[in-house]
Amino acid sequence: MHFRFMRRSLLLFMIFISLQAGAQNTNFENDTVAIDAIYKHVLTESVAYDWLEGLCKQIGHRLSGSANYHAAVEYFRQIMDTIGLDTIYVQELWVPHWERGDAEQVRVISSSEGAFDYATLALGNSLGTGPDGLTAEVIEVHTLEELEEMADEDVTGKIIFFNRPMDQSLINMLNAYVRAADQRTLGPAMAADKGAAGAIVRSLASSTDHIPHTGSTNYRPDGRNIPALSISTADADHLSRLLRKGEVTVFMRNTSHFLSDKKSFNLIGEIRGQTHADEIILVSGHLDSWDVGDGAHDDGAGCVHAIDVLHTYRKMGYKPRRTIRAVLYSNEENGLRGGNAYADQALSRGEYHLAALESDLGGFTPRQFNFEAERSVFIPRFRAVGQWSDLMEPYGITFGPGGSGADISPLKPQGALLIGFRPDTQRYFDLHHSPADVFETVNKRELHLGSASIAALIFLIDKHGLPD
Amino acid sequence: MHFRFMRRSLLLFMIFISLQAGAQNTNFENDTVAIDAIYKHVLTESVAYDWLEGLCKQIGHRLSGSANYHAAVEYFRQIMDTIGLDTIYVQELWVPHWERGDAEQVRVISSSEGAFDYATLALGNSLGTGPDGLTAEVIEVHTLEELEEMADEDVTGKIIFFNRPMDQSLINMLNAYVRAADQRTLGPAMAADKGAAGAIVRSLASSTDHIPHTGSTNYRPDGRNIPALSISTADADHLSRLLRKGEVTVFMRNTSHFLSDKKSFNLIGEIRGQTHADEIILVSGHLDSWDVGDGAHDDGAGCVHAIDVLHTYRKMGYKPRRTIRAVLYSNEENGLRGGNAYADQALSRGEYHLAALESDLGGFTPRQFNFEAERSVFIPRFRAVGQWSDLMEPYGITFGPGGSGADISPLKPQGALLIGFRPDTQRYFDLHHSPADVFETVNKRELHLGSASIAALIFLIDKHGLPD
Q1: Which one of A42, A189, B362, B407 has the minimum C-beta count within 10 Å?
Q2: How far apart are CA B70 and CA B27, in angstroms?
Q3: Which among B39, B206, B443 is the nearest to A445, CB-wise?
Q4: Tens digit of pLDDT for each residue in A188-202?
Q5: What is the phi/psi pair of residue B142, to 5°?
Q6: For B94-141, how does the pLDDT look when each residue is reduced to its tens digit (9 = 90+)?
Q7: CB distance from A207 to chain B under 8 Å?
Q8: Which domains are present in chain B?
Q9: Is residue A299 reached through a cis peptide bond, with omega within 30 degrees of 0 on the bond before it?
Q10: Complex ipTM more than 0.95, yes or no
Q11: Which residues make Cβ contacts (< 8 Å) with residue B461, sequence separation at least 6?
C-alpha cells in the first residue's frame, strides 16, 4: 500500500513536472525565438475564434444598456475564469440608454420615378420623428461647408441629404472613413441649427451596395435635435440621380428615443506582474456594439484579441514582469462612458499605465501598429519600440506614428504609450455598423494572426520596458 | 455656311484636344506622381470587378477542353476589343480533355460509427473506379515516406488515405500549401505503384470545414493509375478519429475519364511599344479553372488583372516604350500546355521577353512581388527592381526573391525576369479548387489594388528598362 502510494505520488509528480515543462519550454530570452513561438502557439492553439462564435451566435449584438450587453459581460467573465487570471472584476458605470424603436422608414413619395422605399437605419442617438413621421422636400449637400453657406430659409423645414462618398482613391480606408464621418457625426446637428426638419445620411461604407450603416450622431441635450436616418450607398447614388431630375419629397419615420441612463460595466481581467506589478500594460477592445448584425468585427474581434493575449501567456507559461490587464470597455459606440470611467478610476487609484493597446478595426490580417503619446514621452518611447520593428517585419507588420483607439485615448494625459492595432482596412467598412457585420465574415487565421501580433508586441514591451 | 463649318471644326478640334489632355494629364516623368496616379485611376475607374462578375455569372467555371472555356476566350476577346489594343490574337494548342463524370461517392460502409457518406470530389486527372465502384479497407498515412516504408502486402488492395494537414503554424499559407501538396500530386501514383486499389486525399485547405477541394494528381500514361478522391478537412479529421477506433471499410465510386485531346487557345492582346517594341513585358493569368465553383480567385482574378493593366495605360494615355502583352493561358490546372506552347512559340519566333508577371494567387490585398530569373541575369535585375521598393512601400507592397507562376516558368530559360504577384494568403486556400471559389468572395477594392500594384510595377520596368 505504502509502495503503491509512493508510486502514485511519483507518477502524479512526474505528470505535474511534464505539464510545467510543456508549458515552459519556450525560450523567452531570445526575442526572435519567443515571437516565433508566440505566433506558432496562437495559430495552432488559440480558441479566440470559438469565443467569438459563441458571442455572435449565443448573444449577437449588444448595445450598452441592453440585456444583451449584460449577457456578454457574463459570457466573457466566465471565459476569463477558465483561463486562470489573477484578478477578474467589473467596473460599474452608467451609460446612455438609447433604443432604435420601430423599423424605420424612408419613403420617396414624390419624384420623377414615382414612390418607393429605401432601406434605412436610424443613426445612433437620433430622436424619433414622432409616430406620424415627417414629410419634406430633400436638399442634397456634400460638405458641411456647403450647408453652412446656404441661407437658413432654404434649409428650414427641409430634409438635408448628406451625400459625400468615402474617397475610393485612398489606400487606407480608415482615412477615407475619417474624412467622410463629419456628415454623420456633425451634419444632422448643423442642419438642425439651420432649421431643417430631418436628415438623411449616406452610409459610411466603402462598398456600393444596399446595406444601410448606423453609427452615432451628435446629440445635444441643450440644443435642437432632428431625426437622422442613414440609407445605403447604392440608394444614396440613386437619390442623387433622382434629385438631378427634379424635386424629391420624402416621408421619413422612426421612433428612436432615449430612456434614463442605465447601469453598465467594464470587464477587467489581469495577470499580475512578477517584478513590476505597478506598471500596467493594457490590452483592450470594446464589448458594446451597435444594435444590428453580430458586432463580430466591431468589436467582438477586439474583445477576443485582448483575452487571447492573456490566455496565450498562461498557456505558454510566460510570467510577465509587469501587470498585463485586459479591459473590455462599455459604451464605445454611443458615449465613451466606459473609456472615460476607466481612466478616471485609474487616476483616482494612482494606477500607472505604461502602455495601452486597443484593437477596434476588426479581425482582418494585421498590417501595422500605430503609436501615440504625450509629447514629453513620445519620442523616446517610439524610438524604443521602433527598435523592435525588424522583429515584427517577418510577420508583415510595420510600425508607425498614428491614432490608437477611442477607449484608451483618455489615458494619454496620464502618460501611457497608446497603441492602435491596424489590420487590413479594405473589407472593414463594407461591414462596419451594419447588419452585415456577422461572424461568417471573420476568417479564423486572420483573427488569430491579430492575437499573435498583439501578444508579440506586448511581450516585448513587458520584457524590455519603456524609457520614461 | 463656311463660318459655321469652321466653328464646328474648331469645336470638334477643341473636344479632341480636351479628350487628349484628359487622357494625358498625368506626369509620367516623376515615378512617385505616376504611381500615385495609377493607383487613384484604378481605384476609382477600373471595371475589372465587373469583368470578373460577368465571367463568373455568365460563364462560371471553365476547365480547358470544356465548352465554357471557349465561351471564356470569346468573352475576354470581346473585352480586349473594347479597350483598343494594337493586336489581339489566339494561339492554338491541344489540351488534355478530362471529365469528372457522375457525382462522386465516398461511403463509409463499415466502422465503429456505422455507415454514412462523405462529400467528395475526384482529383483532376483521376481515373474512374468503373461503374460498380470499389470497396476496400482504409489505411491512413501522413507522408509519402511513411507510405514508401510500408510493405507492399500491407498496401495491396487497400485505399490509402493521405491525411497530413496544411501547417497552420506558418504565416504564409502558400508555403503551407506547397509543403502539403505532394500528397495530392504524387501520393496516389505512389500508392498505385505499391498495389493500392484507390486513394483518398485530405483537401489542401487552410480552414476546417466540409468543402472538398479538387486539384490535379499525377497521371502516368505508361504507369498504373488508381482512382483518387478528395474529402474535406473536417471529414478527414473525422475519418482519422474513426480509424483510431478500429477498422474502416469504404466504398468509393467515380466515373472520371479522359477523352481525346481537344483544341484550345491562349488569348493574347498587346499594346505595341513606342521605342523598344521588340522587348516584351508580359502580364498574365490563366483562363482555365477547375470544374467547380466560379474559378473567381483561381484565376479569374489574374485574368482581369492582366487586362486591367493594359486598360489602365490606355485610359491614362500612357504610351509604353516596350510592348506590354497580356496573356490568358489555357490548361494551367491540368497540363500546363498553354504555358509550354506559349514559350515554345516565343522561342521559334525569336521573341524576347524582358519580364513576365503572373497573377495566380487570387484577388486579395496585395502584399509582395516575388522575383526569379536565371542565375546569369538575376542579380543585376533584382538589384535594379529593388531600387523601386521604396516607391511601392506606401502601398503596403514589399519585394523579395521567390517563385513566380507556373505558366510563365517556361520563359525562365529564355532570360526573362519572372515576377509572382503575391496577395494576402490567409483566405485563398479556404476556397482554392473548391465550390467555394465564387464571385461573392472577391472584394472589389482588394481586386483593384492588385491591378494597380501590377500596373505600377510594370510601368517602372517599362519606363526604366532592366540591365542585361
Answers
A1: A189
A2: 40
A3: B206
A4: 999 999 999 999 999
A5: -115, -20
A6: 999 999 999 999 999 999 999 999 999 999 999 999 999 999 999 999
A7: yes
A8: 27-98+260-464 (3.40.630.10), 101-255 (3.50.30.30)
A9: yes
A10: no
A11: B281, B322, B354, B355, B385, B417
